[in-house]
Amino acid sequence: MEFSELFQKRRSIRQYTGESIPAEHIRKILEAGLRAPNACNAQLWHFYVLVGKEKIEGLIPDVCRQEWIKKTAFVVVITENAEPLNARFGAEKGNLFVAENAGAAAENMSLMAAEFGYASCFVGAFDEDKCREYVGAKPEERPVLMLPVGVPAADVPLRDRKPFEEAVTILGDFVETAPEAKSDGPFRIESQYLPGAVFDDVGMPKATIHNANLEGARFSDINLKSGFFGGMTFEGSYFGNADMKNSTFEHIDFSGAHFVRADFSDAVFEDCKGLD
Ligand SMILES: Cc1cc2nc3c(=O)[nH]c(=O)nc-3n(C[C@H](O)[C@H](O)[C@H](O)COP(=O)(O)O)c2cc1C
Fold it and tell me: Which of 22, 108, 224, 231 could form a disulfide with 36, with the two C-beta atoms 3.0–4.6 Å apart?
């Protein structure tokens, strides 16, 4: 799987089947965590890994009151000993560095888990002292993050992020080349099976999309003004920052589709379902 696909696949999931995960996959996920960048390569982390129902359920309610973790297959508790970095850089920087280490390790593990088809969710809200005691960590090891991993029982659409321009300030030269204008008329898709297709930051005014299965597709920052959509399924798809003014939708199944800042003003819907 391409990285650009993998990081879109990862999302925080809080519904799990309770199924276990083979030990060799658990090891690979943990090894991915240990490959993460970390300050001075001092590797001040230690991962305590709780595998199976009994060990995981023991976290609730004292260590962590998040019931959903019960059905995950294993939970990694990432601890960090900040002392060596605090001695070298001062406590403010040292503590920041180890938190960053833990975040990088957790992200590597969640991506590796996603590649195997598993899901995960960072957990920062737990009682550190009780956690330390529960896993038997040393007094100098601070539990920084927990990463429950399991077999997902549900999927959720990618969660919205702030627009690029709001979240990013670029200093210095950054000249983007405008995409080449197509001369062969408005965009058209007919009779296609395109589950999980991604339409990101594209202008498709007056597009025709007919007889296409776009289940789980993602439409973000998109201009679909005055388009025509007929005989399609958008089940579980996502529309964010989508301009769909004056569009026509006929015989469309929108069940489970997710709309964030989608403008459907003056759009016409005929024989559509899943829009309530
Ligand atoms: C440092 C950190 C702590 C988090 N703690 C929790 C938590 O305690 N419980 C939880 O359910 N989700 C937790 N999350 C997950 C976030 O809620 C989630 O990443 C965010 O809503 C974005 O959703 P996404 O990961 O699906 O894109 C945490 C995430 C981070 C990065």
Answer: 108
Tokens of 163: 């627009």
Write the residue with the smallest CA distance to atom 31 of ligand 1: 122
Q: Ligand 1 pocket check: which of 96, 121, 147, 162 to mutate, most ligand atoms within 8 Å of Cβ?
A: 121
pLDDT in tens, the chain (276 residues): 899 999 999 999 999 999 999 999 999 999 999 999 999 999 999 999 999 999 999 999 999 999 999 999 999 999 999 999 999 999 999 999 999 999 999 999 999 999 999 999 999 999 999 999 999 999 999 999 999 999 999 989 899 999 999 999 999 999 888 766 555 677 888 777 777 788 877 777 788 887 777 777 878 778 777 887 877 777 778 887 788 888 888 878 788 787 877 888 888 888 888 876
Report which DSSP code applies to 73: S
Tally of structural domains, the chain: 2
Which residue segment(s) compose the domain that 214 sits in?
165-270
Of ligand 1's atoms, which has the minimum distance to the CA of residue 64? 8
CA of 46 relative to ligand 1 center, distance in Å? 21
Structural contact between residues 225 and 247, judged by C-beta atoms closer than 8 angstroms: yes
Q: Are 73 and 188 in a shared domain?
A: no
Sign of CA dihedral 43, 29, 75, 36: positive
